[in-house]
Amino acid sequence: MFALWNDLLNLIFPPAPECPFCGRPGPPGKACGNCLAYLEGFRREAHCSRCGRLPGKGAALFGRGGTRLCGECRAREWPFALVRAAGPYEGIIKEAIHRFKYAGRRGLAAPLAALMAEAARAEPLLAADLILPVPLAGEKLRHRGFNQAALLAGEVGALLRVPVDRRVLVKIVETPSQAGLTRPARQTNLEGAFKVINAGKVCGRKVLVVDDVFTTGSTMSAAAAALTAAGAARVSGLTVAAARFF
């Protein structure tokens, strides 16, 4: 309800053109020079070749040549091939995600997706035949009024020219929010929560799963497990942001 009211107000009183990240005046929907420079700094940082997360203070990446893994990715096997994010879950990216996700600023889907598409183009292994958003269960979808991952997936699919299907992957279990759980609880909270409705749509195909944030990897892992079980040839992930590992 809040999201619909917010959209109505924006229609009647269009906001002044501004940078979608910091709010400074500028071309509508485009990052200003300061924010572009800020984001470019993150692109130069070393990241884990598997989960895409950036190291935190005191953390290290291990490996040789072009393959560098965080400690978690060295210790476990994921059901996805790799995940990439446009940047870390902090600063202007985190603030933009919060406005988009919790304040009903659905217009932020396009600029956030533009950053995601740029990250996808930089990683050839993210090439996909089909893009799927991480689904929301019915109760949370009704409460929020929209699925942020579905909006992002639609924008990313248009930019990358890859078909998007919002119905193949569904959430069949209403689970507590990941944000309020401990790390061990997050890892078990979503087990078996996702289901593929039509396996023929994903069987033998390279699937790219889109979500807003990658933290512990539990959500992406549960979605990828369901898709792999349904016969997907390869499952990768793309998010706006990823939490740093420590």
UniProtKB/TrEMBL annotation:
Keywords tagged on the record: Glycosyltransferase, Transferase
Residue ranges of domain Double zinc ribbon in the record: 8-74
GO molecular function, one term: glycosyltransferase activity
Pfam families, sorted: DZR_2, Pribosyltran
Phosphoribosyltransferase domain residues: 189-240
UniProt similarity note: Belongs to the ComF/GntX family.
Protein name as catalogued: Predicted amidophosphoribosyltransferases
Natural source organism: Pelotomaculum thermopropionicum (strain DSM 13744 / JCM 10971 / SI)
